[in-house]
Amino acid sequence: MQFTIDAYVKLIELLKSSDYKFCLYDNWDEVEKSVILRHDIDLSLDKAVEIAKVEKELGVKSTYFILLTTNFYNIFSKESYNKIMQIKNLGHVIGLHFDEKRYAITTIDEMENYILEELKILRQLLNEEVNVISMHRPSKLILENDIQIKDVINSYSKKYFKEMKYVSDSRMNWRENVIEIIQSNQYKKLHILTHPFWYSTNDEPIEEKLKRFLQNAIVERYHHLNDNLTDLHQLIEKKEILH
């Protein structure tokens, strides 16, 4: 499968034609054939909004997990907040993407406390209940324990891996052929993780996607400076940074 928007649309259409019902984490077991679409937003809210719009056009709802502790976007900035709200207003569910490496965590109890603190922050920001989490680059502590938190859905709990067939496109690599898995009709419950960052208009290698991301970051930083520094163009013209 190519990492293009068109290929993602075809994936959705294949799931539909294979009679899978698009579900969320709280209702996936209510129908015979269900699929949960999960998106971890590690790097770019813009790419997440792009995929969210595509899914809206296709009549699909999915869950987008927001990373509070990333260096790549600030959920409290007006720009980032508006993008998160745009995803929400397109009909999708917002969840917490939790990075345990942000903290000095040694026990499950410590992890639970930090998760609850981050959930509280995200709930206050969005002014709504947030009760589903995914883990960012999970450690053995997470993978080897079926972590249960009261009133919180952990997408890494065993039932989402034992009772469902889980497939992921991590690092722009499907470790199993997701198309063949869908076509096989072998699994009645699917749990599919994608990272919106990898999907673009044209088919291109991972190196090109990363280079463009870095180049765009320079332009974005220039615009942020321009918003906060009077007459920036007199000091540095935009064209100077595009060489």
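The above is record 1. Record 2 follows with the same two-line structure.
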Amino acid sequence: MVTVAFVCLGNICRSPMAEAVFAEHVRREGLEDVIKVDSFGTSAFHVGNKPDKRTISTCDKNGTPIQHRAQQIYPHHFTKFDYILGMDRENLGNLKCMAPKNSTATIDLFGSYRTSNDLNRIIDDPYYGGQNGFDITYDQVTDFSKGLLEDIRKNHL
């Protein structure tokens, strides 16, 4: 079993969208029995909340099912997941600071798995902007999901 966790600040915009999109790629490839996906926030701001309405509507209009409640990442997750992927440099820095000494996870930017150089590796937080930011985020997580799945196939399956 390969385990993947996507992480942003509050776990209501970027990381649940990344989780939903990647899970859909996994499902389409018939790999849901060998790849487990989840998402978290580095903060507890929105724990228990559903994803932002714009995240849900962006996923819906692209035919991507999304079911999630915000949750916070904790030190024990760093030995439970194979990949812990932050959306931006601040998330990545927070994750590296949080990681216990016995961490076994690959901690990286999700954008490190991009397949298109036309896309920014950093997934900016769309929360305070308009719908366009969520559309850009969707394009990024779709591309990065392809690259991550390639990496998992090459290194784990």
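The beta strands are 2-8, 35-41, 83-86, 106-109.
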